[in-house]
Write a structure and sequence with these properties.
The radius of gyration is 14 Å and the shape is globular. The relative contact order is 0.14. Strand 5 and strand 6 form a beta hairpin. It has about 110 residues and is α+β, with helices and mostly antiparallel strands.
């Protein structure tokens, strides 16, 4: 999962991600994404949720991700891209928001 720092640039629009706990979508590192000419910007990346939701390549990315990486992304009725196992993201956000994860290392809290 991409490590997110406040102020880091969105992988799609380049604007800063001010609050990583709000409006953020992350991917992990995958060689399939790394070598893909259009989707490599999303390899181990953080983007604004609103950017990926409105991205013109959204549906093609979701289809590629699900077939090549064999993970489960879905586009909900609200247009949001999310992992089918949304609870993984939620647990991660709760863990990081408590300050127990700093710069990629687990710390005792």
């Amino acid at each position: 999962m991409a490590l997110i720092e406040p102020g880091m640039p969105c992988g799609l629009c380049g604007e800063p991600i001010h609050d990583p706990d709000v409006d953020t979508f992350c991917t992990t590192a995958h060689s399939e994404l790394y070598y893909h000419p259009e989707f490599n910007v999303l390899n181990d990346a953080a983007v604004h949720q609103s950017c990926i939701d409105s991205w013109t390549e959204r549906d093609a990315f979701v289809a590629f991700f699900n077939s090549e990486i064999r993970d489960s992304l879905v586009v909900g009725q609200d247009g949001h891209v999310r992992y089918r196992r949304w609870w993984v993201t939620e647990v991660w956000r709760r863990f990081t928001s408590r300050g127990r994860h700093k710069r990629g290392r687990h710390t005792r809290g």
